[in-house]
Amino acid sequence: MAEIDKEKVVAVLNQILESELAGVVRYTHYSFLVFGFGRIPIVSWLREQADESLLHAQQVGEWITTIGAYPSLAIGPLLDSHTFDIASILRESLQSENVALGLYRDLLALVEDRSVALEEFARQMIHTEEMHAGEVDKMLRRPGEMTTSVERQTGKA
Ligand SMILES: [Fe+2]
């Protein structure tokens, strides 16, 4: 088995760490801005997402020190669109989640056939993040709408 390119792997892990930490702040921030009848379940869903992002950030940070590198103290880009509209909040979250998903895919490409444990971790996270994106996509559909928002955007439906 070939060795991992430590520098490249750490660079991607640090980008993921920053993006997950941004997720913690983003979901927490949005959880303050939900008003209306649907508030209670939506606030708790957003807070769960914040907790999950924190867990992911902790797992990624542990990986960075496990392979002998220094975890970033920075945080990924945060865009405050000043929106109170749940659909816009969800669309923005979906976009950020897709960025994170892309980073986990980059990680997988770097560790595939080089580190069983890191490969397993990357695959697990891709699975989790894809299921999460699918869930958000369903929340963005109207009842009875079978096509995904990606299909609608790319005109495939
Ligand atoms: Fe995550």
Automatic annotation (TrEMBL):
Residues 3-147 form the Ferritin-like diiron domain. One of its GO terms (molecular function) is heme binding. GO terms for cellular component: cytosol. InterPro entries: Ferritin-like (IPR012347), Ferritin-like_diiron (IPR009040), Ferritin-like_SF (IPR009078), Ferritin_DPS_dom (IPR008331). Keywords: Iron, Iron storage. One of its GO terms (biological process) is intracellular iron ion homeostasis. Coiled coil: none annotated. Pfam families: Ferritin (PF00210). Gene3D superfamilies: 1.20.1260.10. This is Ferritin Dps family protein. It comes from Caballeronia humi.
